[in-house]
TrEMBL record:
Protein origin, superkingdom: Bacteria
Official protein name in the record: Glycosyl transferase family 90
Family annotation (PANTHER family): KDEL LYS-ASP-GLU-LEU CONTAINING - RELATED, PROTEIN O-GLUCOSYLTRANSFERASE 1
GO molecular function term, any single one: transferase activity
Residues in Glycosyl transferase CAP10 domain copies: 139-304
Signal peptide residues on this chain, from the entry's feature table: none
Coiled-coil intervals, chain numbering: none
Keywords: Transferase
């Protein structure tokens, strides 16, 4: 267990940071800008433009909140993830945000955790929110060939596609799948909680979307198991929209009807499976550099404030 997995430690640490005096954030700001100068600028720009697609000026609504008025309401983790970077900006810098799993698109640019994968999602600006839950990685000591020839999945029943998936493969001996709550299930297809370590004993980890992205996708892609799932319909800071079928994951039909066939295909072709796993690891690797991740969070807000026509939005002068 990581220290941050303990709620009391996590909240004490992060609320404590928010109480630090201005010179603490000024020092961090200077270090961040110095690091920015050493980075691959083309790479930074590519990711920045992915998260904030807009490149022309926009107007904020009247009810946009100023940084000085940003308060914790619901979603403490969301609040802390955004508040961490607002310290670098003027207390009067204004923005709009939405916390939660909803995928609606506002008529004005808004900071979201997730957005639908389509060509009309530019007003949903991706920010790294709820990262404590979503951005988890694993250390996997088993190779693909050392794992069980099975698909594993555990999850809540709140989405129809999850219930359908479990019902379809409930009696299949090569699938260890089950729902972890009784909501919508009338007590059917329930299985107990399975920790990540045990799930990693299986060659295939099913990643099934819920209200937005599949929460387990990120840690599963850092493992030596294959992610097997339908084509993603939404994306987060993890850039699910850039993932390619049979390159980063094994893609199956939306009704899961070919999942067993795909499983057997890769069991017989472990080298192809390992090539996909290696590509998945390369995708994950770019999110493991804490300084780059922090810099990009800063840059998303910086671009947002610039395009919204705000001046003097920085709290500190650039070195």
């Amino acid at each position: 267990m990581r220290p941050d997995d303990i709620n009391a430690y996590y909240y004490a640490k992060n609320f404590g940071k928010n109480a630090m005096p201005p010179f603490y954030f000024k020092r961090k700001f200077k270090r961040l800008q110095a690091y920015r100068d050493r980075c691959d600028q083309a790479y930074l720009q590519k990711r920045l433009d992915y998260y904030l697609k807009l490149d022309s000026a926009f107007q904020l609504p009247e009810d946009a909140v100023a940084a000085k008025n940003f308060k914790r309401t619901k979603g403490t983790g969301y609040y802390l993830d955004l508040k961490e970077f607002l310290h670098y900006f003027s207390p009067d810098a204004r923005f709009t945000y939405h916390f939660g799993d909803e995928l609606h698109i506002n008529p004005y640019p808004t900071l979201f955790k997730a957005r639908p994968l389509n060509d009309k999602n530019a007003n949903s600006v991706l920010f790294k929110l709820n990262k404590r839950r979503h951005f988890r990685w694993v250390s996997d000591s088993r190779t693909f060939e050392q794992k069980k020839d099975m698909v594993v999945w555990r999850g809540r029943s709140h989405q129809k596609q999850r219930r359908y998936f479990v019902e379809k493969y409930w009696e299949n001996p090569t699938f260890d799948v089950g729902l972890t709550d009784k909501l919508h299930t009338q007590g059917r297809h329930l299985k107990g909680f399975m920790d990540i370590k045990t799930q990693l004993e299986h060659k295939f980890i099913a990643c099934i979307e819920g209200y937005d992205v599949a929460t387990n996708l990120k840690w599963a892609m850092s493992s030596n198991s294959l992610c097997i799932m339908p084509k993603p319909t939404c994306e987060t800071w993890f850039m699910e929209g850039t993932l390619e079928a049979e390159k980063h994951y094994v893609e199956v039909k939306n009704d899961f009807s070919d999942m067993e066939e795909k499983m057997q295909y890769y069991i017989r072709r472990p080298k192809e499976a390992q090539a996909i796993i290696a590509n998945a690891h390369r995708h994950v690797a770019q999110f493991k550099n804490r300084r780059t991740e922090d810099l990009l969070c800063f840059m998303v807000l910086e671009k947002y404030f610039e395009l919204s026509g705000q001046t003097d939005f920085l709290r500190f002068c650039r070195p």
